[in-house]
């Protein structure tokens, strides 16, 4: 081989994807567009080991040969289902929508229910009314501890006679849309430029007006991959909720529906790398600590319901957002603050109290389910901190968190995934001996899952060989990995 492979190809050049992307691409399928960062079985049994280091932290996108927006010739999406939509080239919607909408249920999911990590279920929560509600499940999902200033305002809102409560302006969250112009179809613009208007006209272009202006239409645009049209439709729906263009810094009422729309909009904008307008639109929300982000702020609307209107996925996405803008240190500060609140909630739960510590739990089952949910959410935050620590080259912090997760892991798949991640982390830090130790641990755990090495193990071995200057052995291991998974782009590039 003329050119010796080098770890610096992935970790030392600012012109190539970051190390987190390198980790993310191992063992993925090119059809995956978005994957959650969950590691353990508690947050979903379909999780693979590549979820540890997502490229874009929460909303992680693997690199593939697919364009950002899947397109269809002369085919428009339909909410009614009267028109057939070709799906053979579409990613599985359940993988696309892992991080948009409500969090997955914790524990064993009944086979008769829809996978709770899909956007379909998230959007159904916005539009379907009068559904049976498990109050304990609702409480644990929405739980959050307001800060001291917010608690004072919430107490005043609940104790004031109807119509007599007028909050201070500083207590209000006043968002609005910054990206006022509609996003054009990127591929259509390219087609017009290079093929001409007449040829480009034969390609079916989907815009927000082609679907119903509701959550059903939004789901359809997302399902078919028309992400720019989906962003445009969220602008229409948020404008109808009084939070559209020109509404920033103006008082407005918040609902679970409006915050779900913001979550969807932000997640898709992040996918499209619209970082500048995303940062501006997210700024008014801050850290969601203002009192109007809680149900108690609206006693006339929600009576005795408590907790936060903010979906946890949105809270986590905003905390990670500075990391996408080249400020991982700021993201770490936000994530640590997030983890601190979650740890306090877990302390309350283990003391047989509700998450906010104000009431006693009704049953041991409620306590166990609540601890399981919030332990899983704490793990998600830990994953995000690891990503930021790697970006900061703070390998000690990343190693400390991963080691803690390793001690908490209770299944071979979890233990193997974390050991493999630690192997790559220490290679990244230059600790080859430590990497070898964790490779051996990962290999031992792999024996509980399958008898022979898989793609991840071959790649781990190849990276270790490179670090030891054994380039031919590394090449051979990458070839074996490519033979097992020919569609894995990272592996194909590595062994060439």
End-to-end separation: 9 Å
Could you state the oligomeric state of the chains shown? single chain
Largest sheet: none
The residue-averaged pLDDT reads 76
Number of strands: 0
Write the H/E string, N to C.
Answer: HHHHHHHHHHHHHHHHHHHHHH
General form: globular
User: DSSP helix count?
Assistant: 22
How would the blueprint of this fold be written?
Layout: H1 8-11, H2 19-24, H3 93-96, H4 119-127, H5 135-142, H6 148-159, H7 186-195, H8 197-200, H9 215-223, H10 227-240, H11 256-271, H12 275-282, H13 299-302, H14 312-324, H15 328-350, H16 364-391, H17 395-408, H18 412-429, H19 432-446, H20 455-467, H21 471-484, H22 489-494
Helix pairs in contact: 5-16, 9-10, 10-11, 14-15, 14-16, 15-16, 16-17, 17-18, 18-19, 18-20, 19-20, 20-21
Structure description:
The protein has 496 residues and is an all-alpha fold. It has 22 helices and no strands. The chain has a domain at 67-132 and 174-269. The longest helix is centred in the last third of the chain and has 28 residues, at 364-391. InterPro entries: TPR_rpt. Keywords: TPR repeat. This is Trafficking protein particle complex subunit 12. It comes from Chilo suppressalis. TPR repeats lie at residues 455-488.
